[in-house]
Amino acid sequence: MDDKAKDQLFKDTLELVRKIDAEKAEKLANVTGPRFVLGAITGGLGIPEVTVRNWLTRGQLNLSMQSQKAKGKWRRFSILDAITISVAFQLSKVGVPVAVYAEIAEFMSNFASNLLTQPFGFAADPILLVFNDGDNWRHIMTDNADIDTLREQHQLPSVFIVLNCMRVMNEALEPLGLPIGVGTADEIMGGADETEEGDK
Hints:
The protein is mostly helical. Helices cover 52% and strands 8% of the residues. The protein has one domain (16-177). A hairpin with a 4-residue loop joins strand 1 and strand 2 (137-142).
C-alpha cells in the first residue's frame, strides 16, 4: 500500500470514528434529555407522585432533571430518570433500604444508557440479583438464570431479589410510548430509519 492509499485509509477511518461518535452522542442525548413531566412517569408506573417528590427533596435519587429545572417551568425528566424511578420504586416495595435502592437504580440507569445507545443485544434477558450477605447489601448482574449455579459462584443466601432488567425498563418506558423492542441487525444498526413506500 502506497503512502497516498495509507493517508486515504487513515482519513476514512477518522471519518467513520467521527460518524460513530456523533451517532452515539445523538442517542445519548435522546435518553438523557428532559422530555417528560413527573406525572407522566408516575402515572404509568402506578407510583404515588408524592413518593418521588419526597425522594427528590431528600436527595435520595440521582436524577438528571435536578440540574435541568428552569425557573417558572415544569421539571422535565429523561428516559433514564424514568428507569431510575421505576427501579427505586420496585425495590422500595420489597423493603430494600433507600440508600441501597438508590445505588442499584443508578447502576440500572447506567446499564440502560449503554443498552439504549449501543448496537448490541443479549442471548438471554439480563437479571440483577439483590441480596443482603449479613453485613452489606450487594447486587450482581448476570444473564444466567440457573439459580443453583449462581448460588455456588456468588455464595448467594437462600433469599434474594431478582430484577429482570429488560422487564423493569419496559415497564418504565411502555407507558411513555417508548417500549424497548428486539429488532433485526439492520434495525439495530440504523437501517430501520429507512421506510419503504408501503410501510408508511
